[in-house]
Write a structure and sequence with these properties.
The chain has about 475 residues and is an alpha/beta fold. Helices cover about 40% and strands about 20% of the residues.
């Protein structure tokens, strides 16, 4: 069993101020795989103090020096990719092949994209030709608290930490206590890359403890949080007394609009996208809206696709899906599947209980409901598991209305071969992102949402800007 009780504070691995052990559970086996410690106020205070002290130099360091360290960070990250994959597979149940490719690869992708964006980033700009002696200075906001989730650990850690490093901020990371092992490896990576002491710090803890302590800390200038909308609201309230900036990437209930002229792979593509990472993605296309003329065929296609999805342990090689992360999540998903049945949705694949042959581990059957109305619970709540709802529609206007009829606004999807219609509908989507016809967003594209999906943007240039203040200066000397 792995024992990782220490925190990374001021460039050193240090013991907790007070013992408070917590076990990490392998969701494939339901067995304890590691022990960490949860921090208390003294640990949080020490980490914030280290970050505050380091900001005096780091906040005014040369851009080229920060860039060189981030480039070194990427090299070390790639060297430790195997360790990161093993950690994520064990802690949150990502099948090992997915962990090696998508989970680790997302971090590589973001670091590379930040390097590209950072090279051309200007921290000093003229206001405009009309005001040659006015300058806009982009300066780091200061000490940042990074609170990250368990579902895409390195995706979120790199999106926050590397952007802040580039901006010149110092930081304290609190990873999810459910899946902390990969962030411990990440902290080793940052240490090996040679960042100055105090620039990056890591304290394990839960939301009520370290999470709240960071959100309310007077010396923390910004909180960047990814997780549930419920927790995001709590963090916003906690941070309000000190008026610190809060950036939130929260839940989603994405609509995938399948028009009657969509390509023949659109439905299967939507199902497979939904099942990726066992449905534990905030941008999952969990509501499939299908135009009436192709609805019946879409149901059969979706059923066939779901029935072909294999489920198995995270340690097993292959393209199957793994377990969900915890017993709490498993129970929540089972309850919502039952609610879908009770409210009258037509179950066409999956259902309650574990898949056949798996009597241990937090495994969920790939599940699809048809004949769902958008007022049903399974169409309103973020299930965060491999469960998809199919909703018929007749007209483009109706599809837009249904898609936007949600408290969330993260990612929506459009499938049509009519480019004019695709563009028209994309403009009407109340979401931070729209993906059309299976085309992924490009390198550096900002990630974030509208409404209760949060605020702020992560990734690329806008991701760096999220950690900057803007200072307007007049009377600038051009000599």
């Amino acid at each position: 069993m792995i024992e990782k009780r220490d925190f990374y504070i001021n460039g050193q691995w240090v013991a907790p101020a007070a013992p408070k052990d917590m076990t990490v559970i392998d969701p494939s086996t339901e067995e304890v795989c590691a022990v960490i410690s949860l921090g208390d106020q003294a640990d949080t205070d020490a980490a914030v103090a280290a970050a505050k002290a380091a900001f005096a130099d780091w906040g005014f360091s040369k851009k080229e020096d920060r860039l060189a360290l981030i480039e070194t960070l990427l090299k070390v990250y790639q060297k430790r990719s195997g360790d990161l994959a093993e950690a994520m597979s064990m802690e949150m149940g990502a099948p090992i092949d997915l962990a090696r490719t998508s989970q680790v690869g997302s971090g590589t992708w973001h670091i590379q994209n930040f390097i590209t964006a950072f090279k051309d980033f200007e921290f000093d700009k003229m206001l405009g030709a009309h005001a040659p002696n006015d300058r806009l200075l982009y300066e780091p906001i200061g000490v940042c608290a990074m609170i990250t989730p368990w579902n895409w650990p390195m995706n979120q850690v790199t999106l926050k930490c590397v952007a802040a490093m580039a901006a010149g901020c110092t930081m304290v990371l609190k990873p999810s206590e459910i899946a902390p092992l990969s962030s411990i490896v990440w902290s080793e990576i940052v240490d090996e890359a040679g960042f100055p002491a105090g620039v990056y710090n890591m304290v394990n803890g839960d939301g009520m403890g370290v999470g709240t302590q960071l959100s309310t800390h007077p010396d923390v200038d910004m909180v960047s949080f990814t997780g549930s909308t419920r927790a995001g609201i709590a963090i916003s309230k906690a941070a309000a007394d000190t008026l610190k900036r809060v950036s939130l990437e929260l839940g989603g209930k994405g609509a995938n609009i399948i028009f009657d002229d969509a390509d023949e792979k659109a439905v299967k593509r939507g199902v497979m996208h939904m099942m990726q990472n066992t449905g534990q993605s905030c941008n999952a296309p969990s509501r499939m809206l299908v135009q009436r003329g192709v609805y019946d065929q879409a149901i059969e296609t979706a059923r066939e696709a779901a029935e072909k999805v294999q489920v198995g342990p995270a340690s097993q090689e292959g393209r199957h899906i793994g377990p969900v992360v915890s017993e709490v999540q498993w129970n929540k998903i089972q309850d919502l599947i039952q609610v879908g049945i009770d409210e009258g949705a037509r179950l066409i694949a999956g259902g309650t209980g574990r898949p056949e042959g798996l009597n241990k581990g937090y495994f969920v059957k790939p599940t699809i409901f048809a004949d769902v109305s958008n007022d049903m619970t399974i169409a309103r709540e973020e299930i965060f598991g491999p469960v998809m709802a199919m909703i018929p529609f007749d007209t483009e206007e109706e599809a837009v209305e249904i898609a936007n009829d949600t408290v969330y606004g993260l990612t929506n999807y459009i499938q049509t071969q009519d480019g004019t219609r695709a563009n028209r509908v994309a403009r009407q989507m109340r979401s931070g992102m729209v993906e059309m016809n299976g085309t992924s967003r490009a390198a550096g594209s900002p990630f974030g949402g509208y409404k209760q999906s949060g605020n702020g943007r992560e990734g690329g240039i806008l991701g760096i800007e999220d950690f900057l203040e803007v200072k307007a200066v007049s009377g600038w000397s051009n000599d």
